[in-house]
């Protein structure tokens, strides 16, 4: 096996000439300035209408909303927790039924392989994902995600600018299937589309609750004075500024001002709305509320919730395996990185605690291979322990 550089895969079984792709489509795209403005449900409705347009569908507004809601702490943690299970799981590259240890070790040493797997999983959250492999002058391979605002998966178009109505038919391009890879269902909007209203309502409740805290904690101040006298008005303004940071206003002695009576609340309505939105986000990405409801939480509930999350992560692994075997590995063969006939598969997960308990039970009746015990549990067996009292054992006391 031969390794040319840090990000380059090459074995003795691959073709001698490895192709390069330095001038990609991603370098031709015209970026757009990013704006940060408050989003609400009307923006989500406009994004849906733009995406569902029959003649000129686009996902510009929808992907902008995805980027906007990803700043939510709970949403980001739920997505990353689910992805980390697949990214931290062990996998193998097989040639037929046998594991190719050299290629497996080589792929695990490449940092961009984990990045590629993460991008494949992201296609379940963001919708269709288009990835282009770019090689630099040194031959290093790097996967680059083409901005999703520039692709129209329903029509297979790559837009050079977000405002274009026509673009490059990337599915008929010569790079498609080798340097240009597509993941995800072209008609799918991704799970983040279902999380948009919950994040927006949660953000609204947090904003209102913070205003309520300001009103209760620092009530506004009112001063009555003769506003026709400039000296008295100036002195009143200076007094209000010096008294603190609370909101204040000055009215004339002949005027009156009353506060309207609002709903008496200590913020429970906002707290309930935030809790509801958090639970919906957790159910969407983890299948259960894990570690959030500390008031009603218990050990058995958390175990069931974790099992549900692991089941979703297992489905992500099957999703990754399908695309690695049908799209990625064939592409690596076409560009000369890996030999043909390889398959990608995750190693089966084992319950180590249950396996250790059963192994202990077998020791009374069967002989267990010491090498297997060392590899499986990290316990090194050096020999058979001699039963009976040792030579230096003290004599039994006399009556």
Oligomer: single chain
What amount of the residues lies in strands?
Answer: 5-15%
Main β sheet profile: 3 strands, antiparallel
Mean pLDDT rating: 81
Which stretches are poorly predicted, pLDDT < 50 over at least 5 residues? 1-6, 10-16
SSE arrangement, N to C: HHHEEHHEEEEEEHEHEHHEHH
Backbone CA Rg: 32 Å
Main-sheet strand order equals: 2-1-11
Number of strands: 11
Description:
The chain is α+β, with helices and mostly antiparallel strands and 399 residues long. The protein has 3 domains: 25-192 and 307-346, no CATH class; 194-296, no CATH class; 351-384, no CATH class. The chain has 11 helices and 11 strands. It has helices spanning 41-51, 60-69, 73-87, 101-109, 111-126, 192-217, 230-242, 268-286, 299-334, 352-362, 370-377, and strands spanning 91-95, 98-99, 129-135, 141-145, 151-152, 157-158, 168-169, 180-183, 221-225, 248-252, 342-346. The strands form 4 sheets. Strands 2-1-11 form a 3-stranded antiparallel sheet. Helix 3 (73-87) crosses helix 5 (111-126) and helix 3 (73-87) crosses helix 9 (299-334). The longest helix is centred in the C-terminal third of the chain and has 36 residues, at 299-334. It is flat, with a radius of gyration of 32 Å. The protein starts with 40 loop residues before the first helix and ends in a 22-residue tail after the last helix.
